[in-house]
Design goal:
This protein has 85 residues and is mainly alpha-helical. 74% of the residues lie in helices and 0% in strands. Regulatory subunit of the dolichol-phosphate mannose (DPM) synthase complex; essential for the ER localization.
Length: 85
């Protein structure tokens, strides 16, 4: 069962995820249609990072996933060879 601390951590993680989603969606989908001299552009990074940041997150995430899978497969193979001997 979830206690109060688990619920608080879950609520904080959910709030952070929603905040990041709304910020990035606003930056990527709405800001291209706002005039360049508008003050809202001061709250967002330069335009080239719209692609660079998600691409970096994707590359790092895939690297972590495939590294984990490689380690699991190596350990599984070493267990099978030990069993065979």
């Amino acid at each position: 069962m979830a206690n109060g601390k688990d619920k608080a951590v879950g609520a904080a993680a959910f709030s952070l995820a929603v905040t990041v989603f709304v910020y990035y969606t606003t930056w990527a989908l709405i800001m291209p249609f706002v005039d360049e001299d508008h003050t809202l552009h001061n709250y967002f990074p330069p335009d080239e990072y719209r692609i660079r940041i998600p691409l970096l997150i994707l590359v790092v995430g895939l690297t972590v996933i495939f590294s984990f899978l490689a380690l699991v497969m190596i350990k599984s193979k070493s267990k099978k060879t030990k069993k065979a001997n």
